[in-house]
Amino acid sequence: MPTTDTAPASNLRHAAATVAARIETVMRTDLETALAGCDPLLMEVLQYTLFNGGKRIRPLLTVLCSRCCGRDDEPLYLLATAFEYLHVATLVHDDVIDHAEQRRGQATVAARHGIPAAILAGDWLHARSMHLIGRLAGAEGLDIFCQATASMVNGEFEQLRAIGDSTTTRQHYFSVIRQKTGNLIASTCAIGALFAGATIAERQALATYGDHIGAAFQVVDDLLDYLGDPHSTGKKTGNDFVEGKITLPLLLALNSASGTDRQAIETLIRGDRTRPEAYHRLYALIEQQDGFNASADTARHLVASAVEALAIFADATEVQATVALLKDLAGYILARNK
Amino acid sequence: MPTTDTAPASNLRHAAATVAARIETVMRTDLETALAGCDPLLMEVLQYTLFNGGKRIRPLLTVLCSRCCGRDDEPLYLLATAFEYLHVATLVHDDVIDHAEQRRGQATVAARHGIPAAILAGDWLHARSMHLIGRLAGAEGLDIFCQATASMVNGEFEQLRAIGDSTTTRQHYFSVIRQKTGNLIASTCAIGALFAGATIAERQALATYGDHIGAAFQVVDDLLDYLGDPHSTGKKTGNDFVEGKITLPLLLALNSASGTDRQAIETLIRGDRTRPEAYHRLYALIEQQDGFNASADTARHLVASAVEALAIFADATEVQATVALLKDLAGYILARNK
């Protein structure tokens, strides 16, 4: 059934909910198999971190990408689950790194079960994820996946090195977000296509789509860190600034400001970033330099490029229904508020 | 060349040094390939943690196990490197979990480069390790490996749960060390055999060998935590007690003590374990209950069982030379003092 112009959001919502429900069933069965006889605390920690209302966007991408290359069967959902495991593994480790207490309005694993449990549960999920990819997508899938995870770690290192550095460039910012988010989303899409036996052109198109929506996702994330409503996002605004991360809104403000405004921004970056007044002053300066609108424009351009990459897909109704969902998903990234 | 009775240690030393040198060369080449264009800090952290005088026992096991099943070629050393990567990944994460400042007399990665760098570098090594195993040992190798890493995490959880619990059983202790150390060493051996196209019986024998020496290794490790010379081991004694880990010497003392001695031990476990007097008192009680000697006996029994498992190998001189090295390695585990 092709999407109609009147109800794209509802089609996407329906597809997302259907896939998410199936992924959760597969995940529960997989955990039962993999954790048979395991320590009850490990099971508890994994269930706590895996079943907390996650949107399952990565598995949805794997499923849709495989589906639009002609495959949609039972093993696909186990393969797709591997991407959710990896995603959650990185969240759990990130929360240790960032000393985060809350995630999606709940205590993080690190806060609730302690740092050892968080590091170990992340390692378990990481191992299980690669295990499934290796088994289901073969050596070629594992290659794509491991290059993406290695590049994710490298992106984190590049970000660490740039903390509090007001000379960071746009190029550096995009290099970091492509490595941290884009490559992994691209691999999620490319491996879905590979699994379906797609042509090289189809795989490339879906990887490009994934790379662009991954970058857009991160740009929106960085924007929500300033503009988000804590009741929706479940976390305070201004974290990135406090941590010294020069994300796109601030970077664009730095680029467009001159004279005393630029000096004022640099002074705030170098000063005590934990003071609420510092954040409020910075926020006003970014707004004045149109940094928020310019960031939102960038996200829109990325989503447009993602959608363009899908042009190679055939006109067959069946394929176009799935392609339409991928387009809706790209659009959803712009609209999300949490 | 078969080992002679007069020079087993020197044959093993020679083989170990030759393999270690070759592994380090392969590791440097692999890092250059995998990290081309990467962040300089990631490269620095990985080099710091990988090239610090490690004994490369795991790669040596992979090489010897493959060799006694008839294969000894270039790719074997890259496969063997994967086990060193995983080993170092777990050490780096363990040091975060244990808040360790020193390892082998040097600052830990966590202490020197910070916790984010340590978690991320561990994740990179973990990913690279599985990538190599999947590529070189196929889906079957990845299965063995991932079961072992999952069980390692589970062992850590079982250990966490038993912290400070004086009712811990011998069975629980061996379950934990087999999961934490035995399974992974067994997988190192089994995958070496699999790589060489060994028979099921050969693979099973080498896995049993690995499981027993892995357990013996951990028993000796736990003994060195009490009896080691900090100048040799590079770490203080008594860490396990301070952390509330009921390892074999203490467990055997608890089992054999009765009346006031047992009460005294239990009081020390429940009390403030950071006081040096508490540790000295506990040490005396373990010695009085013969806990150290009984633990050393256990390690000897495990090593004897490991050596017995090798009996199935053919009498061919070439194979027996390698089997002799595996036997020497098992013996070395008892003799090590760091």
Walk me through this protein's architecture.
The structure is a homodimer of 338-residue chains. Chain A has 338 residues and is mostly helical. Chain A has a single domain, classed as Farnesyl Diphosphate Synthase (Orthogonal Bundle). In chain A, 77% of the residues lie in helices and 1% in strands. Chain A is built from 15 helices and two strands. Chain A has helices at 8-34, 40-50, 57-67, 74-97, 109-113, 115-161, 170-195, 200-227, 230-233, 239-242, 248-256, 259-270, 276-288, 291-309, 317-335, and strands at 102-103, 106-107. Chain A has a two-stranded antiparallel sheet. In chain A, helix 1 (8-34) packs across helix 15 and helix 3 (57-67) packs antiparallel against helix 15 (317-335). The longest helix of chain A has 47 residues, at 115-161. The model of chain A is unreliable at 1-6 (pLDDT under 50). Chains A and B meet through helix 2, helix 4 and helix 6 of A and helix 2, helix 4 and helix 6 of B.
How would you describe this structure in keywords?
homodimer, 338 residues, mainly alpha, Farnesyl Diphosphate Synthase, two-stranded antiparallel sheet, 15 helices, globular
Blueprint of the fold:
The structure is a homodimer of 338-residue chains.
Chain A: H1 8-34, H2 40-50, H3 57-67, H4 74-97, E1 102-103, E2 106-107, H5 109-113, H6 115-161, H7 170-195, H8 200-227, H9 230-233, H10 239-242, H11 248-256, H12 259-270, H13 276-288, H14 291-309, H15 317-335
Antiparallel strand pairs in A: 1-2
Helix pairs in contact in A: 1-3, 1-4, 1-15, 3-4, 3-7, 3-15, 4-6, 6-7, 7-8, 8-14, 11-13, 11-14, 12-13, 14-15
